[in-house]
Amino acid sequence: MKKVFWVSRHQLSPAQKQAISDLHGSDCQIEHLTIQFDSMLGLAEFISTHPRDIIYAVAGAPHYLAAALSGLKFGVFENHPQKRQDGVFGLKSVYWVRNYEIREVWRNSNPLSDNGEMLMPVRQ
């Protein structure tokens, strides 16, 4: 069973859960962690200590850049810019960073929907 870490102060939205299920299988185990990174290398250090796991994180740009420039693998969510009537931001895209590259792997063009399409499978 694949283990997915969701590192954020917030719970996953229904669309984020659906995207993770689409990309990593419906049987993956999701663990939510609320971690505040104390240094620019915090995210990179966390990812490095979980080399076989899948990491999705909400962090500042310097954290993402340090992890990407270290060649680490992790996922990033991009929301649609406006909240829906239910108060939730719809998920627009999922990007996977790996080996110094970033690729869009999941997309949802409809901000009112929680369902998108997988563009390419995420390799581990």
Structure in words:
- This protein has 124 residues and is α/β, with parallel strands linked by helices.
- The chain contains three helices and seven strands; from the N terminus they run βαβαβαββββ.
- α2 packs across α3 (61-69).
- It has a four-stranded antiparallel β-sheet with strand order 4-5-6-7, covered by helices on one side.
- The longest helix is centred in the first third of the chain and has 11 residues, at 14-24.
- β5 and β6 form a beta hairpin.
- It has one domain (3-118).
- The protein has helices at residues 14-24, 42-48, 61-69, and strands spanning 3-7, 29-33, 54-57, 74-83, 89-98, 101-107, 117-118.
In short:
By secondary structure, this protein is of the alpha/beta class. It is built from 3 helices and 7 strands; from the N terminus they run E-H-E-H-E-H-E-E-E-E. It has a 4-stranded antiparallel β-sheet with strand order 4-5-6-7, with helices on one face. It has a 3-stranded parallel β-sheet with strand order 2-1-3, with no helix packed on it.
